[in-house]
């Protein structure tokens, strides 16, 4: 039975990519929405690679249709940085730091997902519109599952096992009767993945909602998907996603030169969300964000300064790709690296796996990506979406010292890579205009 899932993902992605890049990409991400709930209920070997199979179908479809020839990404400045990042990781893969099976799994996390960046560079306005419809459907369906879990309990859909241990350990949501409840994962591997995916889709949904080119039905879909995303973030009770959303809103407002109309809209939304949080016991956990001592302690623990310094000094060339891979499957745990420093920091993860060279390459990529903030009126036909993508990437990389899910979160990491490709396209258009 578990073999059926990767087959459906591969065949569907391959078939839809033949129709259009937006269709293929949308279907691939749509399967990613259900990766978590399928994975925890079908613990076979093949469901581990359910989402990866969809990516394989997507990549093969792009190659067969010669869509890579439609763009010159690899010849751009960003494309050269990207090639170095991929080439350096492939070089490290050839060095036998650890067993090649676990190094292959690490390569899957760091390279297989990252290949979506040039795919994002290829997207047209029509592709983005089609992709947004798929993401909107995923947001709405995941909310339906989340409401079911809210009413009947998370165990009704997520059995207790090794993969759901984190979900069952996150029993810190206070209910109206004073008891505790589990954070709601929707259809994802955990609540943080659910909230992160909802947050990163906001850029597409808002563009769908307010674009002058959008049909009224697309506007309605965008509005419902935004409601589903906000509801999902609140239901998960995850403070990181909520704080990131607040920072993205501030950056978006700044990019629009603190436009007073946008400011009023933001104020109204803040008041509404504040009232909802204040009047629902399940959302009280979000109020701890006002506790500066708690927040600073949480950030310090995640940064783990002592461990970060130890990693930088003891592993200047890294400790092998597998050392920076936090999601090695259970059937390969006996081959996983042992005795290495523990970390909860994306930059520390990069250094552990790729060394100083890898970290320097990624920092160069970030500097390139965020070099020119999108103007109020951008030349691309994407409008405000580009500004929200910029804010999303800025907040994402600025807060990457909290957690290590940068390239392993399904499907949020893939959507983030698509955003990076879109932003790279904008940066190259700016460079072309300035020549």
In short:
The protein is mainly alpha-helical and 435 residues long. 65% of the residues lie in helices and 1% in strands. It has helices spanning 4-19, 21-33, 35-41, 50-64, 77-94, 100-112, 116-122, 125-152, 165-169, 191-200, 202-210, 216-236, 239-255, 260-278, 292-303, 305-314, 346-369, 384-398, 412-434; strands at 173-174, 180-181.
Uncertain regions: pLDDT < 50 for 5+ in a row?
none
Helix content: 55-70%
Gross geometry:
globular
Average the pLDDT over all residues and give the rounded result.
Answer: 83
Instruction: Give the N-terminus to C-terminus distance in angstroms.
Output: 56 Å
Total beta strand runs: 2
Write the layout of secondary structure elements.
Layout: H1 4-19, H2 21-33, H3 35-41, H4 50-64, H5 77-94, H6 100-112, H7 116-122, H8 125-152, H9 165-169, E1 173-174, E2 180-181, H10 191-200, H11 202-210, H12 216-236, H13 239-255, H14 260-278, H15 292-303, H16 305-314, H17 346-369, H18 384-398, H19 412-434
Helix pairs in contact: 1-2, 1-4, 2-4, 2-8, 5-6, 5-17, 7-19, 8-12, 10-12, 10-13, 10-19, 11-12, 11-18, 13-18, 16-17, 18-19
Task: Describe, in plain words, how this protein is organized in 3D.
There is one protein chain. The chain has 19 helices and two strands. The radius of gyration is 21 Å and the shape is globular. The protein has helices at about 5-20, 20-35, 35-40, 50-65, 75-95, 100-110, 115-120, 125-150, 165-170, 190-200, 200-210, 215-235, 240-255, 260-280, 290-305, 305-315, 345-370, 385-400, 410-435, and strands at about 175, 180. A two-stranded antiparallel sheet has the order 1-2. The chain has about 425 residues and is mostly helical.
């Amino acid at each position: 039975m578990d073999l059926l899932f990767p087959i459906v993902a591969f065949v569907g992605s391959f078939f839809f990519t033949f129709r259009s890049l937006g269709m293929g990409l949308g279907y691939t991400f749509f399967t990613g929405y259900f990766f978590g709930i399928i994975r925890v209920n079908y613990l076979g070997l093949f469901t581990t690679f359910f989402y990866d199979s969809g990516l394989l179908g997507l990549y093969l479809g792009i190659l067969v249709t010669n869509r890579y020839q439609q763009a010159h990404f690899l010849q751009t400045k960003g494309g050269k940085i990207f090639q170095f990042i991929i080439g350096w990781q492939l070089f490290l893969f050839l060095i036998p730091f650890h067993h090649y099976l676990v190094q292959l799994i690490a390569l899957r996390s760091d390279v297989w997902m990252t290949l979506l960046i040039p795919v994002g560079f290829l997207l047209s306005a029509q592709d983005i519109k089609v992709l947004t419809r798929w993401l909107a459907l995923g947001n709405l369906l995941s909310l339906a599952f989340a409401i079911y879990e809210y009413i009947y309990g998370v165990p009704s859909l997520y059995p207790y096992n090794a993969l759901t241990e984190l979900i069952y350990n996150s029993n810190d949501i206070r209910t109206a009767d004073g008891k505790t409840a589990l954070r709601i994962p929707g259809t994802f591997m955990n609540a943080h993945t659910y909230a992160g995916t909802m947050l990163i889709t906001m850029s597409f949904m808002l563009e769908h909602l307010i674009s002058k080119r959008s049909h009224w039905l697309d506007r309605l879909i965008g509005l419902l998907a935004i409601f589903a995303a906000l509801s999902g973030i609140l239901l998960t009770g995850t403070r990181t996603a909520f704080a990131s959303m607040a920072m993205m809103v501030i950056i978006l407002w700044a990019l629009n030169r603190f436009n007073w109309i946008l400011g009023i809209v933001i104020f109204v939304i803040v008041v509404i969300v504040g009232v909802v949080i204040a009047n629902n016991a399940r959302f009280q956990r979000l109020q701890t964000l006002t506790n500066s001592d708690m927040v600073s302690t949480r950030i310090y623990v995640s940064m783990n300064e002592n461990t970060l310094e130890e990693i930088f000094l003891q592993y200047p060339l890294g400790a092998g790709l597998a050392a920076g891979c936090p999601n090695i499957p259970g059937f390969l745990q006996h081959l996983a690296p042992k005795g290495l420093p523990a970390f909860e920091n994306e930059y520390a993860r990069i250094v552990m796996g790729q060394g100083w060279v890898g970290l320097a390459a990624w920092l160069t990529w970030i500097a390139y990506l965020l070099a020119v903030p999108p103007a109020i009126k951008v030349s691309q036909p994407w409008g405000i979406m580009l500004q929200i993508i910029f804010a999303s990437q800025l907040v994402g990389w600025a807060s990457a010292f909290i957690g290590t899910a940068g390239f392993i979160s399904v499907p949020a990491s893939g959507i983030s890579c698509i955003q990076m490709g879109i932003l790279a396209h904008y940066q190259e258009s700016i460079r072309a205009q300035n020549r």
